[in-house]
Amino acid sequence: MTPLRFVVAILPVLALLSGILVLRWRAYRAAALAWLVAVAGAALVYGAGPVMIASASAKGLSLALLVMLIVWSAVFLYTLAADLGAVDSIARRILDSSVDPLVLALLLAWTFSGFMQGIAGFGVPVAVIAPLMVLAGFSPVRSIAAVMIGHSWAITFGSMGSSFFAVQLVTGVDGAALGPPLALLFILPIFFTGLSVAHIVAGWRGVRRALPLVAAASALMSALMWALNMLGAAPVSSMLPGLFGSFFLWLVGRGRAANTSALSQDRVTPRLSFGWAFLPYGLLTLLSLLAQVPAVKDTAADLQFALRYPGLQTAQGFAVPPQEAYAPIRLVGHPAPLLLLSALLTYLLYRQRGLWQQGAAGRAWRATVQQSTGTTVGVALMVMMALVVADSGMAAVLADAAEELGGSAYLVAAPFIGLLGAFVTGSNTNSNVMFGPLQLFASQALALSTLTIAAAQTLGGSIGSGVAPDKALIGTSVLGGDVSEGEVMRRALPYGLLGVLLIGLEVLIVTLLGFR
User: Fold this and answer.
1) Residues 95/108, Cβ–Cβ less than 8 Å
2) Contacts of 53 (CB under 8 A, 6+ apart)
3) Residue 319 belongs to some domain of the structure
4) 341 CB burial (10 A radius; 0-12, 13-18, 19+)
5) Among 148, 155, 210, residue whose Cα is nearest residue 490
6) Can you give the residue range of the structural domain that contains 225?
């Protein structure tokens, strides 16, 4: 490995980071620059011809389509539910409960925010729940910071598993093999984020009081996350643990002495009952579980769309194997059809009961387009850049450099790589796409488990996305007033860094004990 080849290999990543951090560009502009830098390096230094570059970029578009179909569908279902009053009904049912303020903080900022992340993502938990925290009597800075770190445990499996799908695709790891051990590793992040929320809102006294409750709720949520992944229902394995965790804390809070002074404001009667409000997500859960029934999976196994890509080789001998069905989009098993079917069934049932609001679908579609367009372009360009880096041999050169760290050091560093990507792009999905190929090649070079490194990547990205600057910006924009993003970041970021350090040590210990 020559210094020139290393510098050229790392330039696309540096271009992306510089565009976002130094030039303060939007992610899609920085990603476009990074893709152009990757193309130039691949052609001029690594010997990739026009066909290979075009093939790698087209593969990137295939991956982006698979991931963005999930994002579009998840945002559409959420905005539809919000327009129909379902989100408001669920939130008010929780907020109107007379509970201990510390329990209420955990319920809103930790478990219910995880539920919201499971169904939507893209900063929705911060935008929806931070105002509820302020309404419940918490300061704006503490409210935003608590939700930022509190929902971060749910990001990998959130947005119907878009980040989870992304890390599978760029590393080639099978989701059925990755899901259960990844869910077990999430025991620590779930527990840590719960205690972090307690510390943010009530200091060490709050941590001592919350410890038994957080431990019990974490065990419940982690066990359910693992069980859902064992059943193949990864797309709902943030949503359902968040919901069950919320129900558990609601029950606990109902049994404690109430301090209702902060909650005594007049309430508007929700448009929907809780049962009808939760219907879209109940249908989604049912459909996700039905899609894993062997008879259903076998019947629909051939109902998929995928493109074939040829095997190619650079002028310097780096070979890329052919792909007969690259990034397949399955009619049964991919979350997007399940999300859209849930929306259709919701329409039919709501209309039958007279609950449907005229024009709701159109408003939800327009909101989805407005919210997702920039993300779509950014993800597409970022994935194209990542695939050019991987298929030209640049990622292999970066992996060779990482090998000098040694296995143990890299196990601790891997989650920080995930955090870095998510912090600068605001997305765990983007982080997995950007650094997934590097993590894959590094695991191979260091003879480490690809499953373990893929898990470390998305674990770090999950926490990093939660404490990213864009989440602070969303929170301060929604609340307004004199709250600054810098003040929120200073409050939230230390918890994110400590959490990722603990994840790195967890991954190291698990590997040393022989679990892979």
Assistant:
1) yes
2) 39, 42, 43, 388, 392
3) yes
4) middle
5) 148
6) 3-260+273-512
Nearest partner of 466 among 497, 434, 441, 440, judged by Cα = 497
In whole angstroms, what separates CA 54 from the centre of its chain? Answer: 29
Mean pLDDT over 27-42 rounds to: 90
**pLDDT tens per residue across span 161-185:** 878 988 887 788 888 899 999 999 9
* 201/105 Cα distance (integer angstroms): 7
Residue 392 resides in a domain: yes
Question: HSE on the CB side for 511, CA within 13 Å?
Answer: 24
Half-sphere exposure of 436 (CA within 13 A, CB side): 32
Which residues lie across from 313 on neighbouring strands? 319
Q: What is d(CA 455, CA 168) in angstroms, rounded to the nearest whole number?
A: 10
Domain assignment present for residue 267? The answer is no
Dump pLDDT digits (tens) for 382-413: 778 888 988 898 877 877 777 777 778 889 99
- Beta bridge partner(s), residue 305: 329
Q: Cβ(74)–Cβ(119) under 8 Å?
A: yes
Count of domains forming the chain: 1
Cβ–Cβ under 8 Å, residues 88 and 352: no
Q: How far is CA 430 from CA 21, 28, 150, 153, 479, in A?
A: 15, 11, 21, 17, 27
- Which range of 75-84, 122-131, 458-467 scores highest in mean pLDDT? It is 458-467
Q: What is the pTM of this model?
A: 0.72
Q: How far apart are CA 138 and CA 201, in angstroms?
A: 7
- What is the SS3 string spanning 348-412? HHHHHHCCCCCCHHHHHHHHHHHHHHHHHHHHHHHHHHHHHHHHHCHHHHHHHHHHHHCHHHHHH
pLDDT value of position 516: 59
355 vs 265, higher pLDDT = 355
Average of per-residue pLDDT values in the chain: 84
Q: Write out the E strands in 407-500.
A: none
